[in-house]
Design brief:
The complex is a heterodimer of chains A (241) and B (117). By secondary structure, chain A is mainly α. Chain A is built from 13 helices and no strands. Classes of the chains: A mainly alpha (241), B mainly alpha (117). At the A-B interface, helix 2, helix 3, helix 4, helix 5 and helix 6 of A face helix 1, helix 2, helix 3, helix 4 and helix 5 of B.
Amino acid sequence: MSTKASLLDLLTTTPLFAVGLTLAAYLLGSGLFKRLKRPSWLPAILIAALLLAGALALIGLPYATYQQGATWLTILLGPATVALGMPLYQQLPRIVELWRPLAICLPIAATLAAFYALAIAWLLGSSDTILASIAAKSVTAPIAIGITEQLGGTVALLMGALLVTGVITIPCVSIAARLLRIDDERLIGFTLGLNGHAIGTVRAFEISPAAGAFASLGMSLTGIFTALLLPLAWRLIGFSS
Amino acid sequence: MPALSGLLWLISYWLIGEVVIYFTGLPVSSGVIGMLLLCVTLALYGRVPTSIAAAAQPLIALLAMLIMPGVVGVFFIIGELAGQWSAILIALVLGTLLSVITTLWLLKRLIGQQHVH
């Protein structure tokens, strides 16, 4: 037992262990996802995250230690977000074509994305802290963390809300699109990004580059709109902050 | 090394985003500001330089892997929320379903109107 613990200590002295674990879980998750014929209710990222969490629990590696090593990967999230400006530019003519409906839809839909969940949680008797933690559920993680801290919520719970929201957005969009008879991938992409932030955007890129670009647009506009208005609305409604 | 100079561009735009936030106090992340600035720059330039495409394409393809380490943290806070999970889950799942239906319905109506004009 002690040799096992010391071996783990030795391996985790460099971030390479956490990076390797993440790559392995990601590749295995994507492979399983393809093997299962790409189910919309079980996205590759959820399979990979479950594998990774299982592996961490199995070898007894504390999440904080893993997270520290994985910073070597997550640091790339910054330039990767910037990179989304490229598909955004490539689809610019198609976005400009639709700028009016998108501009009208965005404030209403982004407000409702937060409102529905907050109203239901409030009706079910959730505490102010929980409400503050899930309010930014449809916003991309780097922005959502800032909003949640401003509202006085818990960041760990926010990350959970982001995962659930992102994952559930994917089947919700396929159901709603079938229900409303919508097959325009621009609308589907925009809805995926607006409601399901980065997870929805990843899914949209699997559909097509155009869907991905509209998802990037929906994701960034929702993030900006919510960051500017949610803290203000919170104070007006009178939640303690 | 076109990919390397492309990566330098992406990192530079992210850092510019940080500077913009520092001076304006905007509550937005530097990645999003960098993304919008990159889009504007490419629009002014008129095309995507090979270096930026060489760096951006693989990074976008890896986006899912890059958010994974944060996502995994969720499984380690489940214990702290005993008894509250059902309310939170119902709110998130039902809230998201309603919000997705509203968004798509709204877009369909708005775009349907545009075609008439």
